[in-house]
Amino acid sequence: MGKTRQATTKILVLLAIIVGGCSSDIATDDNPVLLTAEATPRRSQVDISTDQEAGFTDITVRLIQKNASSVGDSRFLTVLLNRYRVTYVRSDGGRTVPQGFVAALPSTNVTVGSSVVLANVQILNPNAFTQAPFAALLAQNGGVDPDTGQRFVKVTALIEVFGETLAGDNVTASVQVPFTFCNGCGNI
Question: Is the dihedral of CA 99, 102, 121, 114 positive or negative?
Answer without folding.
Answer: positive
